[in-house]
Write a structure and sequence with these properties.
single chain, about 100 residues, mainly alpha, about 10% strand, elongated
Length: about 100
């Protein structure tokens, strides 16, 4: 929950009204506490979408028009850099890709 609160605080300091928080595969948190925090932030004018990396990846796949597996993997790695994903997350993508190619 501290990571979510810290990220939302940073988003708000940057005058962003919306944000996307993608959490890793093995993250655990008290859902009630986090959703209460998100609800409170929404009341203050900041909307944050909280989504797991696995669900986010599924959404991104559905959003793509034409795609090769290599393009998809490259896109995931590029986006991982954009969102400052942890090395564990990018290593999972690279490990899966190495088994495919």
């Amino acid at each position: 929950m501290q990571d979510v609160a810290h990220a939302i605080t940073k988003f708000k300091q940057a005058d962003l009204n919306t944000s996307l928080f993608v959490y890793g595969k093995n993250v655990s948190f008290d859902e009630d506490d986090v959703f209460q925090l998100l609800k409170e932030m929404g009341r203050q004018g900041h909307y944050c979408c909280l989504i797991s990396i696995l669900h986010y990846a599924k959404l991104r796949i559905c959003d793509l028009k034409t795609l090769t597996i290599r393009d998809f993997v490259n896109g995931l790695l590029k986006f991982a850099r954009v969102i400052n994903a942890k090395d564990d997350t990018t290593n999972i993508v690279k490990d899966i890709a190495s088994k495919i190619f």
